[in-house]
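<goal> How does this chain fold?
<sample>
Here is the protein in question

***
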Amino acid sequence: MQQPDVVLLDIPADDDRILEILSNGNRLDVPAFVVLADNPSIDWVADVLQAGVRAILPRVAKLNEIVATVVAAATGLVVLHPDLVDFLLPVKESPARSPPISSLQALSPREIEVLAMLAEGLGNKTIARRMTISEHTVKFHLKKSGSTGATAIA
């Protein structure tokens, strides 16, 4: 008798029976469990991940998401839905990345135009020619807009 590579479980969120299911599955040498559950608590997620769950998706996950998750779990990857990751690991702004409050200001139309051209992959010289301004002015707009590390070289 062959053993499954992945077991897909659809259970109510925070159902403690999953820990029993996982322990039985581990005795059967099932390598990966994928769980469909809605609104799990942080503690429940931590418990099931420690017990061997490889993936947690919401019950409303689309078929292609479930298939991709099952394939990933079968190869040993851990998969968490983006909403769950945001829930578990709240993003905190780094003080080094956020500008001081006093320097926050809206960009001028010219700065936006320069940034748009930079985003298109144009270099400083090309931007200057298109806007009929000096290369120094392009660099000034980029520095003022906070894109000092993104200046392009033509």
